Structure formats: structure tokens, C-alpha cells
Amino acid sequence: MSLTSFTSYEGRQLFKEALNAGMVENYFSLVGNFTTQTETSYCGLGSLAMVLNAMEVDPGQTWKGVWRWYSDEMLECCAPLDLVKEKGITLEQFVCLAKCHGLEARSQRFDHTTYDQFKADLYKTATEPGHHMVISFDRASLGQTGIGHFSPIGAYHAEKGLCLVLDVARFKYPSYWAPIEMIW
Amino acid sequence: MSLTSFTSYEGRQLFKEALNAGMVENYFSLVGNFTTQTETSYCGLGSLAMVLNAMEVDPGQTWKGVWRWYSDEMLECCAPLDLVKEKGITLEQFVCLAKCHGLEARSQRFDHTTYDQFKADLYKTATEPGHHMVISFDRASLGQTGIGHFSPIGAYHAEKGLCLVLDVARFKYPSYWAPIEMIW
Fold it and tell me: Quick one: residue B65, left, alpha or beta (phi over 0 = left, psi -120 to 50 = alpha)?
């Protein structure tokens, strides 16, 4: 099993198939807010900023000028930003942060759920407006360099068992299709 | 004539049609590097950073950590950044900046070209790898608030005469399809 670049010929074909299968419901709003994590440890914050902007949540504060908009360094809640800059955030802190900003959020740990439930959650993410999935994973499990990482899922190709990872560390790994078994 | 949101039902349908017509050649690399201008006057810099990252140009300097990657505030050349922060850049400075970073670039002014040439350029942008178009326009001409603005074109729907504007001021105007006559 291996990853497929989103921009490759094969990656585009996969996208076309997923689009035609109606499995990209939240892709458009997410990709329109695709962002690079602004610090190397802000993968959790960058992923959440994407989801918040995709869902058009009002941050209740201005970003720059008169504009209300989320950028990752505005997400200080549940953990002090200094500490996040040093260590990143945990899955619990991610959920806490999402709730802090008005989202309904729940975490689903690998060892406390089933593969079928994971697939059902992916299906929901791919087909129901406003349902997003952010994965927290060990890069080694995808054959990548690095350690723990967060990124949102942009689409699901159920037939071929692949999902599109909109990786917020774009300077390192541009978007890719990953076998859901590897993600699992 | 009016604009159509990229995330609306109609906007998605237009994308599907453009995709199936093979008119989104440079969309995937561009959208994978979609960015928000980091200052309200950095629309030109943000647009160019997207194109440079989409074309995988090596900035020859690190962004953060060990990573070589473009963000808009790294684009200081042709005009001092302090001045850009205050006034933005001109079309000439945009072209100068693109050349500074190793791209072949040319500007095409509305009053020095023809509508047919504009459509031919759009077609090239939509079908040939590595050909990008960034438009410099008066927001009023699209019925938007604001003045001069830069943004890249992500796709072209030749049949319906529309192009996809990946607007870098995403906090203000998320991506939209615009009639090419209005853009022209």
C-alpha cells in the first residue's frame, strides 16, 4: 500500500471518480480554506482553523483590518500557545479547542472503535454537509518522516478504499490519497 | 451577469463540467497551495506565492525550520516590503517579482490586447501544465467592494464563458466563478 499524490494523473482520476460518486460533500468548503500550519507544531491548530473557516464560524474577533477570520495562531484555548508552539496539542486538547469555538466535536480512538465505525464516519464526512473529520496519526504509519500529526480529510473514495488527506504541512507533504487501512 | 460561489450547488456542477472537459489542468497544484494573503495589501504577493509553490520553485531559503517554501512575506524584490504593506504592488512590479523568482512572466493589459487573445490565454492556463494566469482587476468591475486586487485563475469553463477565481482575500470573498466578460 502506498500514497498517491493529489496532483498526479492517478490522483486527479481518483478525485474525478469520488466527485462523480458524490463523495466530496465537504471538499469544496475545506479546500477553499486550505492552509499551511504557520508553525511546525501547529498542525492541530491549522487543521481546526480550516474546519472553522469552512463552516463559516464567526471567530468573534478580528483577524486583520476589519476582517473576522480564523488563522491558527488565534486558537488559544485549552492549552497556552507557548506550550503548543513547543509541543503541539493532544487529541483531547483538539476536541476541547473545537468545542471552545462552538463546534460539536467528539474524538474516536483507534482502540476504542471498530473499522466499520471508522468507515461509517468517513462516509458521513464525505456525504453530509458540515461533518468534518480531522485525523491524528503517526506519520511513520504512512511511511512518512516525522511523528504525530493532524490533518483534515477532504474526500473519500469508498470503492477503492482511499481518502484524501489535505495535509496542513504542505511544505513537506502536499495532499495525497491514502489507503484507509493505513489511516486506520 | 453575476458571480457564482465555488461551494454552491451550481458552483460544484460548473467545476464538475470543467473537470470533465479537461479544463482544470493547473487547478490541482494551485488549490493545493491555496493561501490567504497575510496582509490586506499583499494580494499580489499572496497570488505569486501560490503560483511559485504550485510550480514547486525552490525559494533558495528556508521558510521555517528546515523547510523551503514560499509565503507572501518572503517576496521582497522590485519593491520594499514596507511600501507594499502600505500600497500593494503594481502589475509591473508583479511581473518583476515573478521574474526575480525564476519564472517566465509577461503582463497583458486590457487595452493592449484583444478579447480573443484573452480567451486563448485562459485556454492555455486551463489546459497546459505550468501555465498560470493571475488577474489584476478593479473589484468594482465584479460588483465587489474594494479597489485593485490580484488573484489567480484556477479553471476555465469555456462553454459557459466562466473562470474560477481563487481569491486570496478569502476572509472577504471565498472562491467564485466569474463571467469572463466581466473579468475582461
Answer: left
CATH code of the domain covering residue B134 = 3.90.70.30
Range of the domain at A167: 4-183
Please indicate if any CB of chain A lies within 8 Å of the CB of B64.
Answer: yes
- In terms of Cα–Cα distance, which of A20, A1, A34, A2 is closest to A158? A20
Q: Which of the residues A101, A149, A157, A163 is marked catalytic?
A: A149
Asked whether the beta carbons of B12 and B117 are under 8 A apart, the reply is no
Min Cα separation B8/chain A (Å): 9
What is the Cα A99 distance to its own chain's centre?
16
Q: Inter-chain contact B63–A171, Cβ cutoff 8 Å?
A: yes
Q: What is the DSSP letter of B134?
A: E
Q: Does residue A1 have a pLDDT over 90?
A: no
Residue located via cell numbers 520594499: B80
Q: Which of residues 127-146 of B touch A (CB under 8 A)?
A: none
Chain A residues with CB under 8 Å of B69 CB are 36, 170-171
Q: Do B34 and A36 touch (CB under 8 A)?
A: no
Residue A65 has φ and ψ, to the nearest 5°, of: 55, -135
Residues of B belonging to the active site: 43, 149, 167
Rounded-to-integer distance, Cα A138 and Cα A145, Å: 9
pLDDT value, residue B62 = 93
In this prediction, residue B86 carries a pLDDT of: 94
Classify residue B33 by its DSSP letter. T
- In total, the C-beta contacts within 8 angstroms joining chain A to chain B are 66
ipTM score: 0.94
- Report the number of distinct structural domains present in chain A: 1
pLDDT band at B158 (very low <50, low <70, confident <90, very high): very high
DSSP notation for chain A: ---EETTSHHHHHHHHHHHHTT--TTHHHHHTT----SSTT-HHHHHHHHHHHHTT---SS-SBTTB----GGG--BSB-HHHHHHH---HHHHHHHHHHTT-------GGGS-HHHHHHHHHHHHHSTT---EEEEEGGGGT-SSSEEEEEEEEEETTTTEEEE--S-TTTS--EEEEHHHH-
